[in-house]
Specification:
about 220 residues; binds magnesium ion; 5-stranded parallel sheet; alpha/beta; 3-stranded antiparallel sheet; binds BIS(adenosine)-5'-pentaphosphate
Length: about 220
């Protein structure tokens, strides 16, 4: 099964994707994670996108479509979770074409709906385990007192993203409403859209997504 998690910054896409990887053996394809990896390993493309990402703007369609194209071949395990891709109509059309080329179909698009106020609180309180990518939140999922990650068990560094500040978040939200939210109508018209309440607790959102996936 191949699905898209669609939602604004901080909606919980990454958190839910990690759960689906563990419980359904799916493959998470997060263009944000791929771009951050390119940035930290200092590739030419990574250096090119660093400023754009820090400001909260979208990188070019060409770059992210190229990243996704590379990942669609090989072992698909329990299917793909597209996390943070597509983000424009052009990316959505490209994904349809790429999937068709690989003989794959897209099965569901899950919109995670969360209001803006909660997003600011979530984003400014987020940190991530540098070792395994587990996502934490100062208010709802704090780093354990012993400093060991609950997922990998190691005493790693917990990092904050350079775009997780109120200023960049405004730009990210604007980009979401202007460039990405038209995809809600796009997938609704294709009969593929389901909406879940992303404001619920993490476990409640997991259950709603499981329902959509027919578990
Ligand atoms: P990307 O990394 O995709 O960031 P984003 O879309 O802004 O989303 P986030 O990762 O910030 O949020 P999330 O929904 O994953 O939430 P999370 O689970 O972490 O993109 C970053 C940048 O890369 C973009 O701005 C752009 O520059 C570029 N980019 C990426 N893809 C691109 C594309 N396709 N095209 C062009 N440019 C692209 O949760 C957030 C916090 O909330 C955490 O602390 C978590 O613990 C907490 N939380 C989660 N769920 C709940 C819950 N139910 N209740 C309470 N707290 C919760
Ligand atoms: Mg994410």
């Amino acid at each position: 099964m191949n699905i898209i998690l669609l939602g604004p910054p901080g909606a919980g896409k990454g958190t839910q994707a990690r759960h689906l990887v563990e419980t359904r053996n799916m493959v998470q394809l997060s263009t944000g994670d791929m771009l951050r990896e390119a940035k930290s390993s200092g590739t030419e493309m990574g250096n090119m996108v660093a400023g754009v990402m820090a400001r909260g703007e979208l990188v070019t369609d060409e770059i992210v479509i190229g990243l996704i194209r590379e990942k669609l071949t090989g072992d698909t395990k329990g299917g793909f979770i597209f996390d943070g891709f597509p983000r424009t109509l052009e990316q959505a059309d490209a994904l349809t074409r790429l999937m068709a080329d690989e003989g794959q179909t897209l099965d569901a698009v899950i919109e995670m709906r969360v209001d803006d106020e909660a997003l600011v609180d979530r984003i400014t309180a987020r940190s991530t385990c540098a070792g395994c990518g587990e996502v934490y939140n100062d208010n709802t999922k704090p780093i354990p007192a012993d400093g060991k990650c609950t997922s990998c068990g190691k005493e790693n560094e917990f990092t904050r993203r350079s775009d997780d500040n109120e200023e960049s978040l405004k730009t990210r939200l604007m980009a979401y409403y202007k460039q990405t939210s038209p995809l809600i109508g796009y997938y609704y018209a294709k009969g593929m859209l389901s909406t879940v309440n992303g404001l619920g607790e993490i476990a409640a959102v997991q259950r709603e997504i499981a329902n959509v996936l027919g578990d």
